[in-house]
Amino acid sequence: MVSESAIQNFRSSLRGQSFRSGEQGYDAARTVPNAMIDRRPAIIARCAGPADVISCVRFAREHDVLVSVRGGGHSVAGKSVCEGGLMIDLSAMKGIRVDPVRRTARAEAGLTLGEFDRETQAFGLATTLGTVSKTGISGLTLGAGWGHLHGKYGLALDNVISLDVVTADGRLLTANASENEELYWGLRGSGGNLGLVTSLEYRLHKVGPVLGGAVLYPIPFAREALRFFRDWAAQIPDELVIQCGSLTMPDAGAVFAIVGWYHGDLAEGEKVLKPLRSFGKTIGDMFGVLSYVQMQSLFDPFFPPGRLTYVKSNFVQSLSDEAIETTAAHMGKGPSPYSFAPGIEHWHGAATRVGVSDTAFPHRQNAFNFMIWSNWEGADNSAKNIQWTRDYWSAMKPFLKTGSYGNYVSDEGEAVAREAYGANFDRLVTLKNKYDPTNLFCMNHNIKPTLKPAASRTKPIDLGASNAAVF
Ligand SMILES: Cc1cc2nc3c(=O)[nH]c(=O)nc-3n(C[C@H](O)[C@H](O)[C@H](O)COP(=O)(O)OP(=O)(O)OC[C@H]3O[C@@H](n4cnc5c(N)ncnc54)[C@H](O)[C@@H]3O)c2cc1C
User: Which of 178, 192, 194, 406 is the most exposed, having the fewest neighbouring CB atoms within 10 Å of its CB?
Assistant: First the structure.
């Protein structure tokens, strides 16, 4: 049991705000975009800087309290919000300093992609991050970070030069190529298992306007469009990043879209995109020149907060004609118009020229990442949407690899973690034993330490009789 005075002392030691149930701001602070997640932390500590983070880690250790860490809150599995424990909320830590000469940015862990891009684009610079601007940089980067620049510059984590991290013993360490090198290796891909990252230093690149958009096809044409997508993907240059999927457009209904972003010489981009833009009977060509910041927020309207989300994702062995036939048979038949079912990302270029064990993120093959990203409104519709997603998934199973990208999966458990960390799993267990032997950082696709029995921090903070009703 944690005494009331210990809790009060802890809260008053913080420079940032903190919230408990019933207090103003508590419900907003525990709410994340995926409305499937409705958990009630006992305390939410909105840290103002690394000193607050250190206090949180020490408090949690001392009182053996369940911890979750919130960067941008976009984990579809809801890993940033715990039930009854201490939620360490980094969303107020938004400092960033761009060095346009060295082409680097030191960014605090609470920044969103949109905030980061705005600051770096003031200097005509950018680095690979994701494709929806409200996503947090830290969860995305620690898990990998696939985005519009990955073909040319690698994944987000490939661009991380250095990280400041508070480890489970409450120390703040710097990890980079010459300091704590093994930790540096492991932080890039292990999704928050090894410590709480307070800031990241990124390598930046010159990025100007981009040529991008989508070509839309009617659903009955999806088979042909998918075969084109597969064959064309084998030929495209690093400057072009493509994905495709079935979605519902507000004015066009259910469509199959092939989306592409070219950054580099725009006249060259026109040539590179020509095969796509002249393929098949389209119902819309939405390509144009956009600023990088515009491009990075173009998908935002498809992901309003408050919808319920359940995602399945694995890499595919190959987009065979049979796989295409199976997926096309499900398109446009889901119970919700808000789903991307499927969404298929093409991973290529610089991101796939990194060795499997050069960072902790192992999925470096030239590949298609297959997702069923189900979104719907109303909790009453959850059962049918989840069931439909699982049925579709079962049908696709024969065509999928065991490898999955942890940042995209809703499901939990050791098998999921093993798939996500692949060939690097055992090396990560060694690091977990060293840096987090009692599994303080367990709300992630968890790598369990094996040296000491892991503490079971599933109990809420016991606040005594006066607050018992809250839990
Ligand atoms: C709408 C949407 C679009 C997306 N688009 C893309 C995309 O284009 N490309 C892509 O690669 N991914 C994408 N993702 C997946 C995204 O990368 C993950 O959801 C990622 O976990 C989000 O990071 P976050 O900080 O917002 O999440 P959070 O939920 O805050 O955190 C996710 C996990 O990381 C841990 N964590 C967060 N910050 C830290 C930290 N500073 N130190 C230690 N651990 C930390 C958390 O504890 C949690 O386990 C998308 C997700 C959504 C919902």
Answer: 178
Q: Please count the CA atoms within 13 angstroms of the CA of 108 that sit on its side-chain side.
A: 15
Render pLDDT for 162-217 as a digit per residue (tens, 0 to 9). 999 999 999 999 999 999 999 999 999 999 999 999 999 999 999 999 999 999 99
CB 405 within 8 A of CB 398: no
CA 66 – CA 459 distance, rounded (Å): 7
Q: Measured in angstroms, how far is the CA atom of residue 112 from the centroid of ligand 1?
A: 10
Q: How many helices (H) and strands (E) does the chain have?
A: 14, 19
- The Cα-based distances of 124 to 24, 36, 129, 134, 254 in angstroms read 40, 38, 15, 21, 37
Judge if the beta carbon of residue 130 lies within 6 A of ligand 1: yes
Instruction: Tell me if the bond preceding 342 is cis, omega within 30° of 0.
Output: yes
- The letter for the amino acid at 158 is D
Tokens of 333: 């038949």
Does residue 75 line the site of ligand 1, with CB under 6 A? yes
Q: What is the pLDDT of residue 411?
A: 79
Tell me if 112 sits within 8 A of 317, measured CB to CB.
Answer: no
**Rounded to 10 degrees, what is the CA torsion of 198, 203, 208, 214?**
-70
Tokens representing residue 163 in the block: 């990280």
For 190, which DSSP code?
Answer: S
The band of 468, judged by pLDDT with boundaries at 50, 70 and 90, is very low
Q: Is residue 422 left, alpha or beta, with left meaning phi > 0 and alpha meaning psi from -120 to 50?
A: left
Cα(299) to centroid(ligand 1), Å? 16
Phi-psi category of 199—alpha, beta or left, where left has phi over 0 and alpha has psi -120 to 50?
Answer: beta
The tokens for 372 are 């069923």
Give bridge partners of residue 214 from the DSSP assignment. Answer: 259
- DSSP conformation letters of 182-200: HHHHHHTTSTTSS-EEEEE
Among protein residues, the one whose CA lies closest to atom 7 of ligand 1: 130
Q: Which of 44, 75, 445 for a ligand 1 pocket mutation test, highest count of atoms within 8 Å of Cβ?
A: 75
Cβ(444) to ligand 1 under 6 A?
yes
Cβ of residue 73 lying under 6 Å from some atom of ligand 1: yes
Name the residue type at position 292. Y
Backbone angles phi, psi at 444, to 5 degrees: -165, -175
Cα separations in angstroms, 235 against 229, 255, 369: 10, 25, 18
pLDDT tens, position by position, 286-337:
999 999 999 999 999 999 989 999 999 999 988 999 999 999 999 999 999 9
> How far apart (Å, rounded) are the C-alpha atoms in residues 266 and 195?
42
Task: Return the SS3 of 469.
Answer: helix
Residue 78 in contact with ligand 1 by CB distance below 6 A:
no
Residue recorded with tokens 């927020």: 297
